[in-house]
Design a protein that fits this description.
The complex is a heterodimer. Chain A is of the alpha/beta class. Chain A has 22 helices and 20 strands. In chain A, the strands form five sheets. Chain A has a seven-stranded mixed sheet, with helices on both faces. Chain A has a six-stranded mixed sheet with strand order 7-6-5-10-11-12, with helices on both faces. In chain A, strands 13-20-15 form a three-stranded parallel sheet. In chain A, β17, α21 and β18 form a beta-alpha-beta unit. Chain B is an alpha/beta fold. In chain B, α2 packs across α4 and α8 crosses α10. Chain B starts with 11 loop residues before the first helix and ends in a 9-residue tail after the last helix. Chain B has a seven-stranded mixed sheet with strand order 1-7-6-2-5-3-4, sandwiched between helices. Classes of the chains: A alpha/beta, B alpha/beta. At the A-B interface, α1, α3, α4 and α11 of A face α1 and α11 of B.
Chain lengths: 526, 295
């Protein structure tokens, strides 16, 4: 029986606490009385994933068995989540490979000639052939690439169709091939509660004009948090769009969930609480810490990004989108939820090397904000771990470095937009449209591997709620000029940062440390 | 870009001092924080394993940084050494140049020199994605030998005495994960260099996983390092690679094993071609894994 998550109070004997620090680590001594929130140990994975998948397809929720929906002569589209899930990428075989192989197998038996596989990237960068091969596996890749297996293109005017508007006036667009299909099978992987459900198709196969309906500062300020879909305006909007899509096209939804076994054996100490560290874990930590302190960023990055997670499948459900998602969320919450009593004045976190928007890429300063104040801050239910007006202290080198192929619009966003203002409303009003419609960014999104021109805006809005809610944000170990451009304070050590934070929250503050990844979801009791 | 000041700890001697200082500080932090000199504090919860034992067939040897280390070792040491010792001639390399899905590579086995010669013949791209089956009882009896063999040659322990089901499962997982599998179906090195009968395991492996088998033959390795000798001597070697063999409709694993054995025997003379054309359904079904019960 895996241990549930825990909140541990720091005392005199507590070992130093691990902080992720980009492509590196730090060991910090937290003040006495601070609390550390640990994730639960990984749930036992399903022993026979292939069998579980076949069972889910044969006994779907609120839908007919998939085999009954497939018939010769039909037009079938299989869509699947892109490389932003899971993090880190899963060691082969990826669960999507197992599901897709099963679906394709059934399609072959049914004699369906017209089949296409679309990677639902939304406004993310197009996946490379190698990345696609990793997700779908060799067999699927060699059978379908490149004619029948490809990335969705949200900027192809011929390839996307307006379905209509929701009751709230939200435009809903969909990939034309998906819309014209007799059946769309969507293969999802849900890592955290914000993933999956109606959001999969409405964002993954949508285009800027439909995604902009919910990726707004207003919506994200009213998504408290977007890791808790019932309280998320973002998800409400996605559900409205999704229902419109369900009316327009027959969808068979398959969702999978994995445990939080995020690190391979070589980095096992990252998976463990410090009190569980064996001598060998300590030695590995020491060796990796020294190596990452000395190595140039490029080498560190290539080593870190080559780490694949030995995730185990914990659930697979198929059928009607909402019903399936409900069941998936139950499994995801069983893995992630950690009960936490009350809020604290300060929250500390180590920002790791990887977020959803930089697989095989650089976590640039804008993405540091997105990951720290967007994703990690929002890993809560009910209310944030930090109180309103409190302080978040993040540790990350926060270097001025960008991936020029993947993140071209991020560079201009940082240099031009953030130099002018860091106010999300202002940014949205004055700059978003220009970046979104810029022909050069569009060109690079369509024909290279660049994120869409508007993407840095969404990354910034992702943190809008935290930026409005917090009294201060301090980055420990970050490049001073870069941190200041983001509108935050820079500190050299955690001790300095805590001292600075006291000016905002007062003397003797209460402190929580989010020991993540592996991921958890703080269920904060009022 | 501004040049850092000499006292900043980021250049020259001051960087060295800062680096060494950091190492010492980290060491002290660990020693004190984890109570190396004192008993484990009573307040600490019982240490837990945290991560479940997921039977991952990737194995540490197939993760980074070991892959990169192996690449350097093989490119920098193993291949030049092999070339110097054996002046190998490779025939039929076109059969492995365009591999786009995992295969089983089956070769005769006369010497420890077989593996380096076969890896040499596969070329960089395929070698990087190839796992070598190594006898568990021989190579993995001692931990350090097992570690070095895995690191050096990307081997995985192939049990000759344990459960065949377990061996099949682990090999199948590797194939499914995109790795080619180099196996020696004779089971052990030939004492006199002559081919021994193949075990039926190769047929099971191919039929269960519906993967192609590429027959290979090494000539001359027996002269380089015959069974019983510890050090290699220079001698000319020839590696022949045959056309991929595919399990036929209704063909039993035993019959397929025999076909592979024949192909290795015949390698000295022939090369052939084999490609699947047609609709996606034909291509898909040609690589279909063993039939499974449907729910």
């Amino acid at each position: 029986m895996p241990r549930p998550g825990a909140v541990v109070e720091v005392d005199r004997n507590t070992p130093p606490t691990l902080f992720h620090f980009g492509e590196g680590f730090r060991l910090e001594r937290l003040p006495l009385g601070s609390r550390i929130i640990y994730p639960a140990d990984p749930m036992e994975p399903i022993a026979h994933p292939e069998r579980a998948i076949r069972r889910a397809l044969a006994h779907p929720i609120d839908d007919d068995p998939l085999a009954d929906l497939l018939r010769a002569g039909m037009k079938l589209t299989i869509a699947f989540d892109d490389i932003s899930l899971p993090l880190p990428p899963m060691a082969s075989p990826d669960v999507r490979q197992l599901v897709i192989e099963e679906v394709v197998d059934m399609a072959a038996h049914a004699g369906i000639e017209d089949i296409e596989l679309i990677c639902a990237i939304g406004l993310h960068r197009k996946m490379t052939a190698d990345e696609l091969r990793h997700v779908v596996g060799d067999r699927v890749f060699t059978t379908f690439w490149p004619d029948r297996l490809y990335n969705h293109d949200a900027e192809d005017p011929e390839g996307n169709v307006l379905i209509g508007k929701t009751a709230n006036g939200e435009e809903t667009w969909l990939n034309k091939r998906a819309l014209e299909s007799d059946l769309v099978v969507y293969v999802n992987l849900t890592l955290v509660p914000m993933d999956g459900g109606q959001k999969s198709m409405s964002t993954g196969l949508g285009c800027y004009r439909s995604i902009k309906e919910h990726h707004t500062v207003h919506t994200l300020l009213h998504s408290n948090s977007y890791m808790d879909p019932p309280k998320s305006a973002l998800h409400d909007s996605c559900i409205r769009q999704g229902q419109l899509i369900e009316d327009a096209v027959r969808v068979f939804h398959i969702e999978t969930s994995v445990n939080n076994h995020a690190f391979p054996a070589i980095a096992n100490f990252l998976q463990k609480r410090e009190t569980d560290w064996t001598t060998s874990d300590q030695a590995t930590f020491y060796a990796m810490k020294q190596a990452t302190d000395l190595a140039p960023p490029d080498i560190k990055r290539s080593i870190f990004h080559s780490m694949l997670a030995p995730y185990g499948l914990t659930g697979v459900n198929a059928g009607q989108v909402d019903k399936v998602h409900e069941k998936t969320l139950d499994t995801v919450r069983a893995q992630l939820l950690v009960p936490v009593e009350g809020q604290t004045d300060i929250v500390t976190m180590g920002v790791p090397y990887l977020g959803p928007y930089n697989p095989n890429s650089i976590l640039n300063p804008v993405l540091v904000v997105c990951l720290g104040l967007g994703y990690l801050f929002n890993l809560y239910r009910n209310q944030p771990v930090v109180r309103e007006g409190g302080v978040v202290i993040m540790e990350h080198p926060c270097r001025y470095e960008f991936h020029s192929v993947h993140h071209p619009s991020y560079i201009d966003f940082f240099d031009e937009v953030l130099a002018d203002t860091t106010d999300s409303h202002e940014i949205e009003k004055r700059y978003e449209k220009r970046f979104a419609e810029d022909p050069w960014y569009r060109q690079m999104y369509q024909h290279s591997h660049a994120y869409h021109g508007v993407h840095p805006f969404y990354a910034w809005y992702w943190a809008a709620h935290a930026l409005q809610y917090l009294g201060d944000v301090i980055v420990v170990g970050g490049e001073r000029s870069t941190v200041h451009r983001l509108g935050f304070k820079a500190a050299t050590t955690l001790e300095d940062a805590l001292e600075m934070a006291e000016q905002t929250v007062g003397r003797y503050p209460s402190i929580s440390h989010l020991r993540t990844p592996p991921l958890f979801l703080a269920d904060v009791e009022v | 870009m501004a040049v850092p000041a000499w006292y900043s700890g980021r250049v020259g001697l001051s960087a060295l001092v800062a680096g060494v200082g950091g190492m010492v500080a980290d060491y002290r932090k660990l020693r004190r924080g984890f109570h190396w000199d004192t008993p484990r504090p009573a307040g600490w919860p019982e240490a837990a394993r945290a991560a479940p034992d997921r039977p991952t067939d990737l194995g540490w040897a197939r993760t980074e940084p070991f892959r990169s280390i192996r690449w350097v070792l093989q490119k920098g040491i193993l291949n030049p050494f092999t070339e110097a010792m054996a002046h190998p001639t490779v025939e039929g390399e076109e059969w492995v140049q365009e591999l786009d899905r995992p295969v089983i590579l089956a070769s005769n086995h006369t010497s420890h020199a077989d593996t380096p010669l076969l890896l040499y013949a596969l070329g960089d791209r395929v070698r990087e994605r190839t796992v070598v089956a190594a006898a568990e009882d021989y190579f993995y009896g001692r931990r350090m030998i097992g570690f070095l063999t895995s690191l050096w040659l990307n081997t995985f322990p192939f049990s000759r005495t344990g459960s065949p089901r377990e061996v099949l499962h682990r090999s199948g997982q590797l194939l499914k994960s995109g790795w080619n599998l180099l196996v020696f179906p004779e089971g052990t090195r030939s004492a006199d260099g002559a081919l021994q009968p193949f075990t039926p395991g190769i047929g099971h492996l191919a039929t269960e996983n519906r993967v192609d088998v590429i027959p290979m033959h090494v000539r001359g390795a027996h002269r380089i390092m015959p069974k019983g000798r510890d050090l290699p001597l220079p001698a000319k070697a020839t590696i022949k690679i045959g056309k991929p063999l595919r399990v036929g409709e209704g063909e039993t694993s035993r019959a397929f094993s025999a076909r592979v054995e024949r192909a290795v025997h015949e390698l000295a003379d022939g090369t052939h071609s084999n490609e699947v054309e047609g609709s996606w359904i034909e291509r898909w079904q040609a690589t279909e894994p063993r039939p499974r019960s449907r729910f």
